[in-house]
């Protein structure tokens, strides 16, 4: 087998020595560096077939930013360099990111010697076959760009507009929704031209095809052509690979050109040519590609005045304004100004009221939130459905009316509310504005309970990453060198008993090192849980599956299905993992009866509940059960409930517990609103 030149860059001397010993059979030359700053001068003089690069150096132990920065510099020097990342903290997401940014492979610490040798051997073969590497990279790049081009917004666009001017505009939009004509959107800054463009796209026959936008006011004029039409490798300095333009990516769909008034006259001429001929070419290419796009343009520039000043082509204007829509300025939209101000708070509960306390408007989130008091006082339900003053909100929280009356811009209050399944902390803030000579106050109530839990989880994740990084850096050379020395014992002088004793000692070192690796790996689950694969699920069917799987001869597991069919978006495997963990914990706490149930809260949120009659949980323990590493079980890992909370956070929900010692526990899984 052909041998190659290998460069190893790592700030740990033990790692460098270990890799140098391991890679000698594959290399004609192994060079080691403990300072990445020495790497580029060396690579500029001597080409290396494979570079093993640590992802984290002394400046930053876990993020990988240093490694990615050095990778970028290496590829600038040699775009075909074969780079393998090595790191003490194995992270699949970072591995994928590394490969996307040009790395060939990814090796976690501690490694298996045989697997590492196989990886480096394959990398050497790739380095010897540059042409194949180039083809593979081009294919990968094309696929990534196509995937990006086909991306569509996850949520539908909502247009806020109750004024006569906006209603007339939206009526026109609805009339031309089935057309494929080019559109020109005119209006002042801040009137929502980009929002309207996306809304028009979502109503059009091309809504299942790509939607590509480009803000011509945010890019230098020199980059207009390359951004719009793409470029070939070598077309200009730093064009190390071919790249399709926005026009090419939008083929079959819609292209939105914002601030088209910024387009230079030469680029206007080229755009006009593309529109007329329906073909374009990349910068540096002699071939053309077909163009099939619905063009939507927008500008705050008076294009007719620009034509008079010879700054905009009249023939281009006639091509892009087949339908011309003018958005009214905010000052002419009456109550829309009021609604647009609220749009920034649409994800929170919002109340609008006068200084005298008269409520003039509340959004849907506020309606859902305030409805949680319905089950507390059935006879007063009508008040919360249509509160007239802030005093009516006393049923929701006794202190809320006075807090709203005393609310000042910039002030912040936190209130605790517990209604049925939902226990939460609400952050109350406000602002004032004048509308048609009237002073109004906007108050927002935002659920911060989940956000606080998330911040705590993120802090624990960061700590775990740092700890695992240091542990893996220490254990990697121990395990690897023990394995390497074990294979060399037979060639040593001495009697067989001494050799066997040495084998046993080395095996013990390797075994304890591997045990430590497995221990640390269990905590990686906390810091790198895969995102949920959401799919529509039937709540009853999911709970029945859990009962069938976890039922024992004791028949201690019972199901109370929801009164009506209930569907939710969730990752079935992850939710089952949470429920199974809670059932196991209940049994370990001497529960004789465990009940699974599901339902919908008054605010429209889906909940699952696990109720048991076990020993219960002490109050001081309840505050800590979701903290990583905390456990009351002998030999427990302390990650089960931590993972449960993280799973619920990734679903946009929460997990809560209510328990009394000697009376059992109730765990509630609360999912997002059931729309």
Account of the 3D structure:
- With 675 residues, the protein is an alpha/beta fold.
- It has five domains: 4-147, Response regulator (Rossmann fold, 3-Layer(aba) Sandwich); 164-332, 3-Layer(aba) Sandwich (Rossmann fold), CATH 3.40.50.300; 336-446, 2-Layer Sandwich (Beta-Lactamase); 452-527; 535-673, Histidine kinase-like ATPase, C-terminal domain (Heat Shock Protein 90), CATH 3.30.565.10.
- 41% of the residues lie in helices and 21% in strands.
- It has 23 helices and 26 strands.
- Helix 4 links the parallel strand 4 and strand 5.
- The chain is flat and about 100 Å long.
- Mean pLDDT is 78; it is low at 149-155 and 373-385.
Task: Annotate the secondary structure layout.
Blueprint: E1 4-9, H1 13-23, E2 27-33, H2 39-45, E3 50-54, H3 65-77, E4 83-87, H4 92-100, E5 105-108, H5 113-128, H6 130-149, H7 164-175, E6 183-186, H8 193-203, E7 211-215, H9 224-229, E8 230-231, E9 243-244, H10 246-249, E10 254-258, H11 265-277, E11 279-280, E12 289-290, E13 294-299, H12 303-308, H13 314-320, E14 323-326, H14 336-343, E15 349-353, E16 359-362, H15 364-370, H16 381-385, H17 400-405, E17 412-419, E18 422-435, E19 438-447, H18 449-486, H19 496-527, E20 535-538, H20 539-550, E21 557-560, E22 567-570, H21 572-588, E23 594-600, E24 605-612, H22 619-622, H23 640-650, E25 654-660, E26 664-673
Parallel strand pairs: 1-2, 1-3, 3-4, 4-5, 6-13, 6-14, 7-10, 10-13, 21-23
Antiparallel strand pairs: 8-9, 11-12, 15-16, 15-19, 17-18, 18-19, 20-22, 23-24, 24-26, 25-26
Helix pairs in contact: 1-18, 18-19, 20-21, 21-23
């Amino acid at each position: 087998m052909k041998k190659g030149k290998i460069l190893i860059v790592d700030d740990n001397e033990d790692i460098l020595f270990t890799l140098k010993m391991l890679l000698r059979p594959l290399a004609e030359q192994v060079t080691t560096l403990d300072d990445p700053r020495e790497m580029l001068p060396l690579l500029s003089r001597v080409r290396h077939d494979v570079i093993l690069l640590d992802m984290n150096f002394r400046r930053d132990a876990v993020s990988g930013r240093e490694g990615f920065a050095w990778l970028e510099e290496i590829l600038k020097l040699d775009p075909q360099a074969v780079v393998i990342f090595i790191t003490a903290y194995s992270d699949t997401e970072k591995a994928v990111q590394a490969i996307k940014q040009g790395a060939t492979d990814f090796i976690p610490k501690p490694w298996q010697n045989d697997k590492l040798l196989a990886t480096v051997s394959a990398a050497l073969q790739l380095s010897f076959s540059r042409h194949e590497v180039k083809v593979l990279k081009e294919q990968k790049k094309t696929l990534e760009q196509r995937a990006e081009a086909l991306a569509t917004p996850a949520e539908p666009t909502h247009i806020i507009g109750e004024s006569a001017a906006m209603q007339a505009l939206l009526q026109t939009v609805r009339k031309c929704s089935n057309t494929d004509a080019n559109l020109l959107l005119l209006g002042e800054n801040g009137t929502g031209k980009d929002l309207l463009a996306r809304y028009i796209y979502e109503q059009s026959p091309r809504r299942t095809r790509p939607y590509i936008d480009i803000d011509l006011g945010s890019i230098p004029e020199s980059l207009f052509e390359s951004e719009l039409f793409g470029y070939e490798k070598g077309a200009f300095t730093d064009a190390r690979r071919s790249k399709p333009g926005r026009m090419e990516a939008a083929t079959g769909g819609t292209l939105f050109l914002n601030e088209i008034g910024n387009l230079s006259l030469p680029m206007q001429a080229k755009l006009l040519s593309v529109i007329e001929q329906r073909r374009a070419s990349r910068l540096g290419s002699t071939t053309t590609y077909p163009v099939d796009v619905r063009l939507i343009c927008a500008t705050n520039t008076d294009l007719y005045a620009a034509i008079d000043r010879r700054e905009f082509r009249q023939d281009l204007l006639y091509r892009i304004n087949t339908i011309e829509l003018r958005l009214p300025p905010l000052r002419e939209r009456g109550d829309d100004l009021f609604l647009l101000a609220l749009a920034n708070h649409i994800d929170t509960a919002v109340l609008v009221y006068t200084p005298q306390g008269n409520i003039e408007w509340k959004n849907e989130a506020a309606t859902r939130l305030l409805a949680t008091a319905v089950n507390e006082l059935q006879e007063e339900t009508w008040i919360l459905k249509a509160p007239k003053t802030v005093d009516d909100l006393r049923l929701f929280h006794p202190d809320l009316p006075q807090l709203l009356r005393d609310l000042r811009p910039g002030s912040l209050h936190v209130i605790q509310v517990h209604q049925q399944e939902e226990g939460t902390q609400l952050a109350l803030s406000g602002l004032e504005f004048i509308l048609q000579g009237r002073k109004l106050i906007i108050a927002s109530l935002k659920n911060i309970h989940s956000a606080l839990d998330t911040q705590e989880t993120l802090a624990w994740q960061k700590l775990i990453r740092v700890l695992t990084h240091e542990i893996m850096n220490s254990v990697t050379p121990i395990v690897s060198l023990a394995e390497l020395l074990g294979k060399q014992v037979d060639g040593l002088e001495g009697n067989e008993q001494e050799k066997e004793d040495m084998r046993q000692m080395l095996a013990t070192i390797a075994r304890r090192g591997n045990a430590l690796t497995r221990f640390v790996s269990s905590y990686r689950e906390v810091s790198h849980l895969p995102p949920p694969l959401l799919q529509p699920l039937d709540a009853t069917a999911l709970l029945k599956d859990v009962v069938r799987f976890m039922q024992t001869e004791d028949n201690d597991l019972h199901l109370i299905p929801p009164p009506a069919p209930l569907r939710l978006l969730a990752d079935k495997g992850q939710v089952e993992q949470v429920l199974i963990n809670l059932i196991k914990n209940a049994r370990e706490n001497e529960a004789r009866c465990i009940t699974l149930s599901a339902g919908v809260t008054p605010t429209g949120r889906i909940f699952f509940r696990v109720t048991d009659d076990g020993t219960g949980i002490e109050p001081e323990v309840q505050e800590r059960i979701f903290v990583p590493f905390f456990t009351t079980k002998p030999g427990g890992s302390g990650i089960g409930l931590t993972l449960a909370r993280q799973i619920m956070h990734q679903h946009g929900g929460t997990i809560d517990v209510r328990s009394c010692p000697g009376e059992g526990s109730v765990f509630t899984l609360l999912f997002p609103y059931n729309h």
